[in-house]
Amino acid sequence: MSTMLARIFKQPSTLCPLRVGTSSIRFFSPPSKFDFQPGPPRLPKEQQEEFEKLQSIANSQIAIEEYNDQIAQQQAEGSTQEPKAPIVNSEIGSFSSLKLVPDFEGDVNPKTGERGGPKQEPLKHTKDEWSFNGRVIDF
Questions:
Q1: 3-state DSSP helix/strand/coil percent for the chain, to nearest 5?
Q2: For the segment 55-103, what is each residue's pLDDT rounded down to a tens digit?
Q3: Sheet holding 123-124, edge to edge
């Protein structure tokens, strides 16, 4: 073992001055916060120049005025026709989507004798929760 240590820590044959603290080597450095930038990858130079040119044209006052003129013209043409109300085919949120099946016919509940009461008893999942088909009706 001592011969192995002697080989590892072998003294140099000529003496050379030992430099301490004059230079440092970093074996690991954390990534710089400037290395990664969120966003799309960079375009090639020609495409980037074209993009910037198109952006400046689109943001110019002339382009904005042309767009506003087109909108005004379309509204003037469409003003002769009355706007139609949208047709909504959704029954979500309405009570017609509950689809309750009555437990009895007539006005009197045969089990309780109640007159004018509900035709179907709601499900009671817990002490304070009443629901019809999964929809809670009492908060």
A1: 30, 5, 65
A2: 888 888 887 888 889 888 888 877 656 666 666 666 665 555 555 667 7
A3: 123-124, 130-132, 135-136
